[in-house]
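Here is one chain, start to finish.
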Amino acid sequence: MKKLKDFFYDKNDIIIVLLIVAVAAFIIYTSIDSLMGYPAKYASEAAATETKATTIVTEPTEATTEADADAEAADEEAESSTDSSEEE
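Its structure:
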């Protein structure tokens, strides 16, 4: 019994270090898929955000189209009134 106690006392630090390394390795092993998948997930989210921003800029809404039409009509009226003033 004293021999076992002396062995444990002498090797206690090494056993604790090995135990900590084993626990850390197990945690990393169980979560490696999510760790390795993070860059792809981040890239796809960035691409989706970029596409969404492009879509918002390039596709006008119905309200925007009506406002543009009203603005163009007002510009045409202003030009026609200016032209008739010049003709007189």
